[in-house]
Amino acid sequence: MPGTQGRLSFLKRVRATMVPGTYRGLTMPVHMRTHVPYVHPLAKNDFIDLVRQEMTVTGEGKLELDYEGSTGWSFHPFNCAPGPMNGGFWITLTQLLAYDGRVNDGAYLGVKQYLPEGTIVNATYKGVATSLAWWTLIPIFANIWRLMGISWYARGFPEEIIMSTPTCMVGVAGFDQFGGPTGYQNFEMAGESFGARGVADGMDCGSPIWNSEGIQGDAETWEMVGPNVYLGRSFVPDHHGYGRFRGGAAWQSLWTVRGSELVNVTLSASGAMNGGVFHKGLFGGYPPAGWKCLWVADTNVKDLIAAGEKLPSSVDEAEEMLKDGRLTAREWYCGPLNQWSPNLSEGDLFGIIYYGGVGYGDPLARDTRAIEADLVKGLMTVDGAKAAYGYGGSAEATTASRDERRAARLAKSVTAGEWWESERERARTGDVSDLVAHMYARSAKLSDSIVNQYKAFWQIAEFPYADTGEPTFTAPAPTDFYFPNSSSRPKPTTS
What we know:
Layout: H1 2-17, E1 21-27, E2 30-32, E3 46-48, E4 51-57, E5 63-66, H2 82-96, H3 105-108, E6 111-114, H4 134-155, E7 168-175, E8 181-185, H5 219-225, E9 228-235, E10 251-257, E11 263-269, E12 292-297, H6 301-306, H7 315-324, E13 331-335, E14 339-340, E15 349-353, H8 368-377, H9 382-389, H10 395-412, H11 416-429, H12 434-446, H13 449-458
């Protein structure tokens, strides 16, 4: 039977490449919407979601994912249901474990997800928005990939480790260059660079977490899709995640509106970004620098073209020209917050710096030749190489610089016990920002999982977080076919 063969093959691969045990992780997407002018009052808030992940590899070779302790659904379109969560898990399986051409339901019989009802991973309010569930799924499963990588490393298979890349989005709606209504997403985001592997740098310009075959596509094709013309598409130096093996290089695009007098642009990033760091590196590897987006309304671009003056060709250059007055606008934004632009028209600008891939391993262990290759390609600056990798211009100078940095690390470091003692009082009193305090309280509202771990780790009697910062809202959970019950997780054996 194909299903039986697929199940047995999957169990065999897990047993051969992974170490039985429990692996834990946290993902904390940051949501910022108080800066957006037109938002429903229930949604006009800033908060952090917490998604607790526990991956268990059983001795039999099964994989079980549990999200107990996650915060609840909320008033945004990033909520998930069992369908999207199963889809994200299936994509993970087909790219990392069951990719040998025998992908069928048999592999699915070897896995299990436990999705606590009422949480962001299983929103049970019938009116909840799930139209952009990927913005929660992507950071969740990016972390699951890390947990799998830790298990492969423990078993001696670093070549299996591959780090995912988040997704940034440019959506355009309004009227196109032919006068008709339009709405589209520029899918060049399918070429966002990948994270590092356990034995190699991440891929530049391709292979996003949700489709390993993704590429940017031709700029000329995207210009035919909608009323936008590229002013530039280029790599962004020093913007990848640093590590012994670096993440894929970040890149950017800048457009001007062409042939339309009414366009609205959505600029958004998976997990909501907004200053949060949840696409983490592994074993000392760094996350990349954050994304950046731009929109500029009512510009002098037409005048610059008529006068033969220079136009910006990158997001950073456009920001620089806006600040020094060469480029003028009625209003504009450039920064890391999710954006919904005002009405844009002919000559207005929008752009994005896509997220680079995460790094793997200590940056001070990076091969000098690899650093110099990136310098030649323009993926790094000399100053960036010095700051990130201790590059000194030659192998000998780099070795000396790194020895100094390692000595400085040791001088600055403290033992785990000393750190624990210094932070325990803050943990006992809940001395954190309001957003973090609300996050903990929202988790505690649905489960005692985080509460018990928190109290046990810090050896305190009371959990200090109670105020969720949310409006009081209750609704009966639906029970029909589209909202299946999700059982609580029995503790599996790891022997």
